[in-house]
Amino acid sequence: MNSVGIEVLSKPFLSEGYLEKGECHFVEKKLYAKHYEHPTAKNAPRIFISELLVDEFSSFLVNTVDSIISKIPKHLQSNESLIFSGTVWG
Fold first, then answer.
1. 90 lies in some domain
2. Is residue 1 part of a domain?
3. Which helix (H) or strand (E) holds 23?
4. Which of 3, 15, 21, 53 has the fewest Cβ atoms nearer than 10 Å?
5. Which residues of the chain, if any, have pLDDT below 70?
6. 57 - beta bridge partners?
7. For residues 17 and 41, is the Cβ–Cβ distance under 8 A?
8. Which 8-state DSSP code applies to residue 2?
9. How many CB atoms lie within 10 A of CB 13?
């Protein structure tokens, strides 16, 4: 699991009652995404979180992204507050 991926970023929405409603694979763009909706709050926004499939890119990009992620404070990685923390990689 990516320490800053969809599974981490969706946690605050899931804890508020959102449900996963679907997923999309954008093969050419190397993206994976999930769609969330709140089942009872009809005016709640729909949430769409996408994740770049970094491992499918060049080693240069993988290393660059790994370098950026390593700058995120460890207490925020895999933490549901990450999505509300702004730019955390410096």
1. no
2. no
3. strand 19-26
4. 15
5. 1-2
6. none
7. yes
8. -
9. 20
